[in-house]
Write a structure and sequence with these properties.
This protein is mainly alpha-helical. The chain has a single domain, classed as Orthogonal Bundle (Arc Repressor Mutant, subunit A), CATH 1.10.10. It contains seven helices and two strands; from the N terminus they run αααββαααα. The chain has helices at 5-18, 28-35, 39-51, 76-84, 107-122, 127-132, 137-143; strands at residues 55-58, 64-67. Strand 1 (55-58) and strand 2 form a beta hairpin.
């Protein structure tokens, strides 16, 4: 799985907002500085997040951004979809809509299972989990599997 810079930056910005539970507005410049992100690139990402309702914004000298709903109600999957669309598309198509001929006939099952595995993590980890460092039990179990931390 390839996580785009846009998704990575978006999640990092939202985690910064989630770490502030006082409702204080944070500017794009502040968010970019806190996470060492390019401001102009982040501004485009924030637009996607605002359109998806994950953040709200206020313009003006005292403006900025805050979460659109509680951090415990925003999953990593929500952010992923708001920025890059479906989690596991194959050549831009939903895996269940694919048909392969001959020996590759069952490859569709592999893609659907891959999507299910990604959802098991991304749909259950919230911004609040990331901020607290307390991941759901099934995600922690995946991290503890032999080889989980090995690059292959």
């Amino acid at each position: 799985m390839q996580v785009s810079a846009r998704v990575d930056y978006g999640i990092r910005a939202l985690v910064e907002l989630a770490s502030r539970d006082d409702g204080h507005l944070v500017t794009a410049e502040e968010l970019a500085g806190l996470q060492d992100l390019p401001v102009k690139f982040l501004e485009g990402i924030l637009t996607h997040l605002r359109r998806a309702g994950l953040i709200v914004s206020k313009r003006g000298a005292d403006g900025g951004y805050r979460l659109g709903r509680p951090a415990a109600a925003i999953t990593v999957a929500d952010v992923f979809r708001a920025i890059d669309g479906p989690i596991a598309a194959v050549r831009g198509q939903a895996p269940e809509d694919l048909e392969y001929p001959g020996a590759a006939e069952h490859l569709r099952d592999v893609w659907v299972a891959t999507r299910a595995a990604l959802r098991m993590v991304l749909e259950h980890v919230t911004l609040a989990d990331v901020v607290s460092g307390t991941l759901p039990e099934q995600v922690g179990a995946m991290l503890a599997q032999p080889g989980a931390w090995e690059r292959r």
